[in-house]
């Protein structure tokens, strides 16, 4: 469908990659990037938020930018393994990671984040 839309002049932007990441459509994301679709930090954030670990790995390994939202989105939605991997691979974090864990009852993530030096909002 995306290929047809592009062939028929449909515009795309960063939201195209974001949508593929959020929905877990790795092949669509790959095709979009191969064909020049732009992406931004929201691609990694949406992959982390939705628990699409392989999507996040592929995006990061292929140069997709990320920011603190990747960690806070993983934290908010209970994806500890994604959070750990993101941090091991240099993803920045801030107090939003703690706030997201607290606000959503993610006790295991909260404990891990505090034990691993996540900045606090206090």
TrEMBL record:
Superkingdom of origin: Eukaryota
Pfam family, one: Ank_4
Gene3D superfamilies (UniProt xref): Ankyrin repeat-containing domain (1.25.40.20)
Alphabetical list of InterPro entries matching this protein: Ankyrin_rpt, Ankyrin_rpt-contain_sf, SecEffector_AnkRepeat
Listed name of the protein: Ankyrin repeat protein
Species per Swiss-Prot/TrEMBL record: Seminavis robusta
């Amino acid at each position: 469908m995306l290929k047809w839309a592009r062939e028929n002049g449909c515009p795309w932007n960063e939201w195209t990659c974001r949508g593929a990441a959020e929905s877990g459509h790795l092949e669509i994301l790959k095709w979009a990037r191969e064909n020049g679709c732009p992406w931004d930090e929201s691609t990694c954030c949406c992959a982390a938020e939705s628990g699409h670990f392989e999507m996040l790995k592929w995006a990061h390994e292929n140069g997709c930018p990320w920011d603190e939202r990747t960690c806070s989105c993983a934290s908010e939605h209970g994806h500890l393994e994604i959070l750990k991997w993101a941090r091991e691979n240099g993803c920045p974090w801030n107090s939003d990671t703690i706030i997201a864990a607290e606000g959503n009852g993610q006790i295991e993530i909260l404990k891990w984040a505090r034990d691993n030096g996540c900045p606090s909002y206090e």
